[in-house]
């Protein structure tokens, strides 16, 4: 008789693979908490997309863990090798900007408290009065102008994670927002996460959540549709483009959610996300963004 075929070892459950592959590096919470989050998401009877989201979250975590190696190495290089001023190239003493360039950064003037666009006397603007957005307030650290625009582009497209501390500190300097229950970085679709290797909103939100002692929400809300680039679309097209983009697997009953993002352009993406959060019970949604662009025609 031939030798008995060796029995294959049991396959590790998908939840175990997801948790062990990514819970520490990607999201920064413990193994038990990670397992509870994933199991709860899969067993949530109120979310039709829950099981599909398991694959999405798995891809998201593994991508964030593995593909971010390139960005992480760049970050280490930035830390170990002294860099010159981001703007003028002169010695900056190991910080992102020299004293002169830091003193010439663009400043946000009186703005609408809802959409953060310029508004005399910081009153609610006519656009927000006539068509109130789903979010309740927006705070911007800078207008989207030189050199802030170059910093954001360097972070998103050239993996310059060395700009994160400067931009995150600018968000923290805006001051605490009263009554916030949790911090939610703007979700990134898994396709773009694979391409980029990290979510810039997560990198900006993590220091803020740590300083404020607030939980960082990284699992319950996802971007499930990869829509056309927003830059090429008009305001009305952007609004239509964002329908069905976000999916929420959990409840936010009575919560005040602080959404963190890099740039607010028309507000269509933030509006769509806030609408989903409100549908899931959030009582208030406040946006905290690095930069605000001028109103588009």
Keywords:
297 residues, alpha/beta, Rossmann fold, four-stranded parallel beta sheet, two-stranded antiparallel sheet, 6 strands, globular
Run of helices and strands: HHHHHHEHHEHHEHEEHE
Strand order of the largest sheet: 1-6-5-2
**SS-derived structural category:** alpha/beta
Looking at CATH, which topology of the largest domain would you report?
Answer: Rossmann fold
Report on the biggest sheet. Answer: 4 strands, parallel
Q: Residue share in helices?
A: 40-55%
How would you describe this structure to a colleague?
This protein has a 4-stranded parallel sheet with strand order 1-6-5-2. Strands 3-4 form a two-stranded antiparallel ribbon. It is built from 12 helices and 6 strands. The chain is an alpha/beta fold and about 300 residues long. It folds into 2 domains: about 15-65, no CATH class; about 105-290, Rossmann fold, CATH 3.40.50.2020.
In short:
With 297 residues, the protein is α/β, with parallel strands linked by helices. It folds into two domains: 14-66, no CATH class; 105-292, 3-Layer(aba) Sandwich (Rossmann fold), CATH 3.40.50.
Question: How are the SSEs ordered, and which strands pair?
Answer:
Blueprint: H1 14-27, H2 31-42, H3 50-66, H4 69-80, H5 99-102, H6 126-130, E1 137-143, H7 148-158, H8 164-173, E2 182-185, H9 190-196, H10 200-212, E3 221-223, H11 235-241, E4 246-248, E5 256-264, H12 268-279, E6 284-292
Parallel strand pairs: 1-6, 2-5, 5-6
Antiparallel strand pairs: 3-4
Helix pairs in contact: 1-2, 1-3, 8-10
């Amino acid at each position: 008789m031939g030798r008995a075929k060796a029995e294959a070892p049991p396959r590790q459950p998908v939840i175990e693979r997801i948790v062990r592959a990514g819970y520490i590096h990607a999201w920064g919470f413990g193994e038990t908490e990670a397992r509870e989050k994933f199991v709860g998401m899969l067993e949530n009877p109120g979310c039709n997309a829950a099981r599909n989201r398991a694959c999405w979250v798995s891809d998201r975590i593994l991508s964030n863990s593995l593909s971010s190696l390139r960005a992480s190495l760049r970050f280490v290089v930035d830390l170990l090798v002294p860099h010159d001023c981001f703007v003028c190239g002169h010695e900056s003493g190991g910080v992102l900007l020299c004293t002169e360039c830091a003193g010439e950064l663009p400043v946000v003037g009186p703005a609408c408290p809802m959409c953060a666009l310029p508004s005399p006397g910081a009153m609610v603007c006519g656009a927000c009065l006539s068509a109130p957005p789903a979010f309740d307030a927006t705070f911007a650290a800078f207008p989207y102008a030189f050199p802030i625009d170059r910093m954001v582009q360097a972070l998103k497209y050239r993996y310059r994670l060395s700009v994160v501390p400067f931009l995150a500190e600018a968000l923290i300097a805006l001051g605490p927002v009263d009554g916030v229950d949790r911090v939610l970085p703007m979700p990134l679709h898994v396709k773009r996460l694979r391409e980029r290797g990290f979510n810039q909103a997560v990198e900006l939100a993590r220091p803020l959540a740590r300083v404020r002692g607030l939980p960082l929400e990284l699992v319950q809300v996802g971007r499930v549709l990869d829509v056309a680039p927003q830059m090429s679309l008009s305001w009305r097209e952007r609004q239509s483009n964002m329908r069905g983009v976000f999916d929420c697997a959990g409840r936010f009953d009575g919560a005040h959610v602080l959404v963190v993002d890099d740039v607010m352009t028309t507000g269509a993406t933030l509006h769509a996300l806030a609408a989903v959060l409100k549908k899931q019970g959030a009582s208030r949604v406040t946006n905290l963004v690095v930069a605000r662009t001028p109103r588009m025609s």
